[in-house]
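ligand=manganese (II) ion
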Amino acid sequence: MPKDLDRWRRAGKIGGAARDLGAGMIREGASRRDVAEEVEKYIRSQGGQPAFPVNLSINDEAAHFTPDPEDMRRFAVGDVVKVDVGAHLDGAISDTAATVEVGATKYASLVAATRSAVEAAERELRAGVETMTLSRAIERTIHALGFKPVENLTGHTIESYLLHAGKSVPNVTGMSTARLEPGEVVAIEPFATNGAGRIGNGAFGNIMRFREPPSAKKFPELSELFGRFRTLPFCARWVPEPELRSALLKARKRLQTYPVFVEEGHGWVSQAERTFLVVEGGCELLTP
Ligand code: MN
Ligand code: MN
């Protein structure tokens, strides 16, 4: 059991409310950048910090897109938008996502498939469960609705300051197996698609992180930014100073940059994600 369970519960509540705030703002004509900024502002207003820049990935993008400061895109009718939010309180992290189809219902069953898959996994989730059991529940639910799970994206355990802590919860069976222990925190995150069922790397998605501290002598601006973000993911929107922002853009190659995950068959993708605490005989939903 995390010693500071109360902090994990509060981080979960903030993450869940931030996700719902973002999902509610995703409508025709809303600016993608404004939605990201409002969601992150809400997390900070609650005393938390974003654990990563809000992901707003659209259509065949599965994950890892965040708007840059100049992003002018507005949501259009028919867009299938994944809003994926992380909030942390002194390192206690929640990770949660929802999918919104803007102004249409053509992909309602694709959106429902991942929501139902999380619920199917939740019913199996308890101390001692093999992750394979959860994968089977996810896979079956998505197949039953006529879609494919995305096989190379997985759920994951979470530890303090560590979003991907070691154990994976694949969205298909036969990938890997581990048992979940009481007190572990786990994010379950099925992705479903009408495409190939795999993602590949697309273009740079505006999320980056430092691999190591930059030299303060050679790169004073980068060194200042390292002081703010350490090795956690961040984005240019979080750097208001023009001189630091331009130093960052020039130094992109010195940092780890995250590509957008794009569906290999260019199918449309939905995602649902919830963070749970594993307990004897069941689980507690941390991101209601
Ligand atoms: Mn996750
Ligand atoms: Mn997530």
